[in-house]
């Protein structure tokens, strides 16, 4: 009996490739890419003060493009290629068709699909770092920071935890989709870089309102929905575990958002949209290390934790600790990404289900992956404690790596160009940096005395209409 023609193998569909898995992997990668462009581009552009809208959005757009060139040039092979040392791969290009059309190191799809999927993860990480630096970093310094930090920080974390040859991978750290590699890294790196770059103007630190809350919500929505690909693509197959990971992701996120909202209303008396977005982000981050290896009820408990602990550290503890107040972390990535990533990693070490770990890892030694709760329940307490120890070791390594490497990168760039913009430029923002303004027509600081009307009306035939239009533009 012959297979249907659409399932038969040929040169473009080799025997080892699963068309469904390949289609899902490309779809998941595209969803994560949409989180960056346009997701975080318009989230940052809407969430900052009006004079920083273009600069903030452009920092995200630049990082996305820059990382792609680094990734195919050397970053992918440093993260998932041949081992150089226990925590780092050998740099090499990922652009040859013979290499890209072969089977990926995991999964039943081509290496090209893996390169693209892992690229969008690599790209979103420095974009998240940018969230701590908006409103004062020199754009030229940012152009240098992205490739340097990607090369000397991100690739080390990715190889150590995600590559089968990495030392933390061999230790048994569970990081389902990037709670450590992406979120803990970006949170610590963003906070560290913010320390070296310096603060915004005092006026901007005191008052930094979003210039477009609806646009901010649109970006937040793309970020949330895009997480379907973020966590759903982590098993590298269109499997039952991928489905569970997607469901757990959205359940945890909704729980976290509602928890943050209730706390805001209880303490401040008003439901805050910005607070809800922060709760959404902490929920997404917290579930990421364990999305496909925990029960759905555990995802709810993780959401309650991610909606309350970062809320407390951001709104209460932050004001009491001098060092946290001193570092100008624009969008509080330390709380929303670093702390939420730590919480997710620890809770994954507690709630990870052995059966779900087997479905995810599909390796002979799957029994070593067991949450402490299940270790206590089944009499394998030492195995559960070992898992918790591995999770804590992963946290310690990523924190130290990003403090050291981010500091070295910033100090090196400082030898070439200033990290922070000059005071005069900081007062003006977009127009001084890029010669462009986000909302030029409605900018209340402009009078438009020389406005040229591009209208269907003829000025000679309808002088009163054109005169009225120009006078409206000149109002402030």
From TrEMBL:
Domain Ammonium transporter AmtB-like: start-end pairs: 23-439
GO biological process, any: ammonium transmembrane transport
InterPro entries assigned: Ammonium/urea_transptr, Ammonium_transpt, Ammonium_transpt_CS, NH4_transpt_AmtB-like_dom, RhesusRHD
GO CC annotations on file: plasma membrane
Pfam annotation, one family: Ammonium_transp
Protein's cellular compartments: Cell membrane
Spans traversing the lipid bilayer: 23-45, 52-74, 115-134, 141-162, 177-198, 210-230, 242-261, 273-291, 297-318, 330-353, 392-417
Family: Belongs to the ammonia transporter channel (TC 1.A.11.2) family.
Name the record gives this protein: Ammonium transporter
Organism from which the protein derives: Nicotiana tabacum
């Amino acid at each position: 009996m012959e297979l249907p023609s659409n399932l038969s193998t040929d040169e473009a569909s080799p025997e080892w490739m699963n068309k469904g898995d390949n289609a899902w992997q490309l779809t998941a990668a595209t969803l994560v890419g949409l989180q960056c462009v346009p997701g975080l581009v318009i989230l940052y552009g809407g969430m900052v003060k009006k004079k920083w809208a273009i600069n903030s959005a452009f920092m995200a757009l630049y990082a996305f493009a820059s990382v792609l060139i680094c990734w195919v040039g050397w970053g992918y092979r440093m993260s998932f290629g041949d081992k150089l040392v226990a925590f780092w791969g050998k740099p090499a290009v990922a652009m040859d068709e013979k290499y890209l059309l072969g089977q990926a190191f995991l999964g039943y799809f081509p290496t090209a699909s893996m390169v693209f999927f892992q690229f969008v993860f690599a790209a979103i990480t420095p974009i998240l770092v940018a969230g701590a630096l908006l409103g004062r970093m020199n754009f030229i310094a940012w152009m240098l920071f992205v490739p340097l930090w990607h090369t000397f920080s991100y690739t080390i974390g990715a190889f150590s935890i995600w590559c089968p040859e990495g030392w933390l991978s061999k230790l048994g750290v569970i990081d389902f989709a990037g709670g450590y590699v992406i979120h803990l890294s970006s949170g610590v790196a963003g906070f560290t870089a913010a320390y070296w770059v310096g603060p915004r103007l005092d006026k901007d630190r005191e008052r930094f309102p979003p210039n477009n809350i609806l646009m901010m919500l649109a970006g937040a929505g793309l970020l949330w929905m895009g997480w379907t690909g973020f966590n759903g693509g982590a098993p590298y197959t269109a499997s039952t575990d991928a489905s569970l990971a997607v469901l757990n992701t959205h359940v945890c996120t909704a729980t976290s958002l509602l928890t943050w909202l209730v706390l805001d209303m209880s303490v401040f008396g008003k439901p805050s949209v910005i607070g809800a977005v922060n709760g959404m982000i902490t929920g997404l981050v917290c579930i990421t290390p364990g999305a496909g290896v925990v029960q759905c009820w555990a995802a709810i408990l993780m959401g309650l934790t991610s909606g309350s602990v970062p809320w407390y550290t951001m709104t209460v503890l932050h004001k009491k600790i001098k060092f946290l107040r001193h570092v100008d972390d624009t969008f509080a990535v330390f709380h929303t990404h670093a702390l939420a990533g730590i919480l997710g990693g620890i809770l994954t070490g507690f709630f990870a289900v052995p059966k779900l770990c087997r479905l995810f890892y599909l390796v002979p030694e799957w029994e070593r992956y067991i949450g402490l709760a299940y270790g206590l329940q089944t009499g394998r307490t030492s195995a559960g404690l070992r898992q918790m120890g591995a999770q804590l070791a992963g946290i310690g390594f990523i924190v130290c790596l990003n403090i050291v490497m981010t500091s070295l990168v910033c100090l090196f760039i400082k030898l070439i160009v200033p990290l922070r913009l000059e005071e005069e430029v900081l007062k003006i923002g977009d127009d001084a940096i890029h010669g462009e303004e986000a909302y030029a027509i409605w900018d209340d600081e402009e009078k438009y005395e020389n406005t040229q009307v591009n209208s269907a009306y003829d000025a000679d035939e309808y002088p009163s209409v054109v005169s009225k239009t120009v006078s409206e533009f000149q109002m402030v």
